[in-house]
Structure formats: C-alpha cells, structure tokens
C-alpha cells in the first residue's frame, strides 16, 4: 500500500510551459510559400489558417487574404512556383479564403519550429516577407532556427523579444541589459524632476561606463517608442 500523500504525485509529463521567450521574426526567401505572389500583390495581407495533408500526399494550405488587390493576388497565384491548384474557397465582406497546394519547391520552416520546441502564435505577410511570432522554450531554440535559416539563405531578422512567463511579462523589443537599466533608472528616480540619480551613478550601480549608459538609455527609449506609439 502506497504511503505517498494524496495530491503529491509527480507527473511524468515533460513540460515547456514555464519560462521561454516570444520572438517576432521576419523571414524572406523567394521559395517561401506564396512569397512570389506577395511581391506582386502588395495591396493584400495574407494570414495562414491551417495546413493539412490529404490521402494522396498533397499538402494543402488554407489562408485568409485581406485588402483590395484580390485580382493581383489571384494573377500572382497562377504564376507562383511555390503553389499549384489555387481555389477560392469563400468570400466575406473583409476578406477572401483560398486553398492552395504546396509544391516541392516550397521551403517550409514550420516543421523545424516544431522540432526545436517552438510554437507559432501568429503569422502574417508583409512586403518584405513573412512576419511570424513564435514562442521558444529558450534562446538556444531561437539560435537553432536562425542557423536553419542561414543554411538555406533565408533572411532571418528578429524584430522583438520578450519573456513569456506570464504572457505579457518583459518589455517588448528590449534586450535584458536595456530592461535592467530602465528598471533601475525608474526605481531610483532618474526620470523624476529633479532626478534622483545621475547617469554617473547609474553607471557605477550597473558597473558599466557612462558612455555605455548614455547609449543604452537612448536605444532603450527609442525602442520603447517604436513599439508603443501608433
């Protein structure tokens, strides 16, 4: 008979739910899905809905398309080597839904993201590629995805980073050093009038040079403005 207290059983389930980071990355390559079409139809925004594989092995993608350039988008589909057999599935007042079949030429990163423990939160198209928000179990996974993209000449740019412990924890776009500096500066009254702490004192407190403090402050404040202002 077990003497282990009720409710204290240890789960054998492996978890990545604690910690981790969320990154917004921009990916660009001529062979990413729909990329040739998107370069021709800049007046639309595409949001993938889901992918599926049918019995014959065909890889199908359903996506919602927003904007006012549907004719350009559909013309682009006809000449896009990354997809075939495009079908208009549905119409709504604000969007259209299409289904396309992925060709063998299409480069996919979704499988790699899953393999390294990542989860795609959001995806949307831009003129300069796909904008993807991904939750990673840690920075090593982010580095692995970067290396995967570099090996295939996929342009990989990290726009913003934040911690994911409590959904919205962390400051979007700031590096850990920038976040630490702003936290200390605020707590010590650097932004008060009169100031409660000088840049020299901040430099001593964080054990960095005054010039580094000045540059880090400017970059951190500029990043906050860029990500917070409309």
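Sequence proposed for the structure above (230 residues):
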């Amino acid at each position: 008979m077990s003497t282990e207290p009720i409710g204290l059983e240890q789960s054998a389930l492996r978890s990545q739910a604690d910690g981790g980071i969320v990154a917004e990355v921009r990916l660009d390559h001529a062979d990413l899905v729909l990329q040739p079409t998107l370069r021709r139809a800049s007046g639309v925004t595409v949001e993938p809905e889901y992918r599926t594989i049918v019995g014959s092995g065909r890889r199908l993608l359903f996506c919602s398309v927003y904007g006012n350039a549907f004719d350009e988008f559909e013309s682009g589909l006809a000449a896009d080597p990354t997809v075939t057999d495009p079908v208009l599935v549905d119409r709504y007042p604000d969007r259209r839904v299409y289904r396309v079949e992925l060709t063998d030429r299409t480069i996919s990163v979704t499988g790699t993201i899953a393999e390294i423990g990542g989860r795609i939160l959001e995806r949307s198209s831009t003129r300069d590629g796909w904008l993807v928000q991904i939750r990673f179990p840690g920075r090593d996974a982010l580095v692995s995805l970067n290396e995967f993209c570099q090996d295939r000449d996929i342009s990989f740019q990290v726009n913003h980073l934040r911690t994911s412990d409590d959904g919205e924890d962390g400051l979007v776009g700031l590096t850990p050093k920038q976040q630490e500096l702003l936290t200390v500066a605020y707590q010590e009254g650097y932004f008060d009038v009169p100031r409660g702490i000088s840049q020299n004192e901040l430099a001593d407190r964080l054990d960095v040079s005054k010039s580094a403090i000045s540059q880090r402050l400017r970059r951190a404040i500029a990043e906050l403005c860029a990500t917070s202002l409309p």
